[in-house]
Amino acid sequence: MSTETLVNRARIICEQNGARFTAIREKVFRLLADLNGGIGAYELLEQLKQTEPGAKPATVYRALEFLTEQGFIHKIESSNAFLLCHHFGHHHPAQLLICDQCGNVTELHAHILHDEFNRQAVLQGFTIQQQTIEAHGLCKSCKLQ
């Protein structure tokens, strides 16, 4: 899906949610949309400074917080990085396949995994409020090298 299509979808969702998709938030969104993997906040800041020289860490962190709240991005906890969710529009569990060699991240939506994980949690008396499962390894391209 093109970056423009993603941006337009994000604008519509923000309007529906009564949220402001400011210029800075859109720029951070676009930076994430152009990546195949995750990126850290400070790396995003350096890229953002190319068009917004006065940008500070708080600028990026506020944008990332907003994008997370709207369900547009996932946080990769193991690497403290962020990834655009191409299936945004609703909050959902995700399973992430993270290539340790090239950094590519593939988002999966295996409902059977989600359902079993929730079932096991309920058996333990645990309520899951947010779920992202991360798996590290090598992608198909890197295995062939």
UniProtKB/TrEMBL annotation:
Subcellular location: Cytoplasm
InterPro entries cross-referenced by the UniProt entry: FUR (IPR002481), Fur_C (IPR043135), WH-like_DNA-bd_sf (IPR036388), WH_DNA-bd_sf (IPR036390)
Swiss-Prot/TrEMBL keywords: Cytoplasm, DNA-binding, Iron, Metal-binding, Repressor, Transcription, Transcription regulation, Zinc
SUPFAM superfamilies (UniProt xref): Winged helix' DNA-binding domain
UniProt KW Lyase keyword: no
Pfam families cross-referenced by the UniProt entry: FUR
Keyword Iron assigned: yes
Self-association and partners: Homodimer.
Family indicated by similarity: Belongs to the Fur family.
Protein name: Ferric uptake regulation protein
Species of origin: Rheinheimera muenzenbergensis
Gene name of the record: fur
